Amino acid sequence: MSGRGPSVELTDGNRVIDKFEAPTRINIPPDVLERMTDILPDETKRFLRAAIAEPDGTLREMEERGEDFPTVGRDVGQFLRLLAYAVDAERIFEFGSGFGYSAYWFAEALPEDGEIVLTEFDADELREARDYLERGGFADRAVFENGDANEIVERHDGPFDVVLIDHNKDGYPEAWDAIREKVAPGGVVIADNAMISGAQDFDAILAAIEGEDPEMDDGTRGIAEYLLAVRDDPDFETSVVPLGEGIAVSYRR
Ligand SMILES: C[S@@+](CC[C@H](N)C(=O)[O-])C[C@H]1O[C@@H](n2cnc3c(N)ncnc32)[C@H](O)[C@@H]1O
């Protein structure tokens, strides 16, 4: 990984459930993990999974690759593509692209002359993203940017029809400040991990957006501040959808 300190993987002992920059690797006990990662009852998750079509072979392969990587997951990925179709997206910007799973979902919804900007600290992951998008025939619509997404965004003019925020959680408020003016009217911004992620605490986020001042780490504070900023922004209409680990969807009026 380039650009920052060492990368830490937060695991349940087998599966990586979050990844961020910090000096250690942390194993989460199963009961704590369940509290941190389950928004929806298992039956509801099963229902959602059965109700959407199987993705293509490359996406299924990427899901296998993603078993040890915190992608948005299939339910959110398919919803991202649905949103991109719904707003007739031509230009998309991602904060935090990993090995390209969410970008691949988006890319299918773009017209041939469309554009998706992928940003990623980790050059190896970005190379993988390029390989996967090439295999899908989408690489010509993709711009691969290696570095800090919150800096890269300054080099890209809007308007963007769709934005995904899914990088370091303490960087969400800064990402919002940088992108909000670049979102096209009728466009959407989606922030992943709005309700939970490996390191974020559902109860603390809830308390903060209800007006309390709970103890929080920087990542949790970043999510809470982001949710307050989008909720109170008069130019945007926001809801939180409890898919995956919760996504905040903000529509630019
Ligand atoms: C949750 S993963 C992204 C997953 C991706 N959106 C998907 O669903 O396939 C977050 C990624 O953001 C990267 N990252 C974290 N902070 C970043 C930053 N400030 N700029 C660029 N990349 C960052 C991490 O290296 C990691 O690969």
Write the layout of secondary structure elements.
Blueprint (H helix, E strand, L loop, with lengths): L6 E5 L4 E6 L4 E2 L2 H8 L4 H10 L5 H9 L8 H13 L4 E5 L5 H9 L5 E6 L2 H13 L6 E5 L2 H4 L7 E6 L6 H8 L3 E9 L10 H8 L8 H14 L4 E6 L5 E6 L1
Parallel strand pairs: 1-3, 4-5, 4-7, 5-6, 7-8
Antiparallel strand pairs: 1-2, 8-10, 9-10
Helix pairs in contact: 4-5, 9-10
S-adenosylmethionine binds next to α5, β5 and α7.
Termini, distance in Å? 38 Å
In total, how many domains does the architecture comprise?
1
CATH topology: Rossmann fold
Just name the CATH architecture. 3-Layer(aba) Sandwich
Low-confidence stretches: none
Q: What's the CATH C level?
A: Alpha Beta
- Beta content comes to 15-25%
Number of strands: 10
Element-by-element helix/strand order? EEEHHHHEHEHEHEHEHHEE
Bound molecules: S-adenosylmethionine
The assigned structural class equals alpha/beta
Give the mean pLDDT.
90
Q: Please count the helical segments.
A: 10
Query: Globular, elongated, flat, extended or rod-shaped: what is the shape?
Result: globular
Give the radius of gyration: 17 Å
The CATH homologous superfamily is termed: Vaccinia Virus protein VP39
Q: Can you list the strand order of the major beta sheet?
A: 6-5-4-7-8-10-9
Largest sheet: 7 strands, mixed
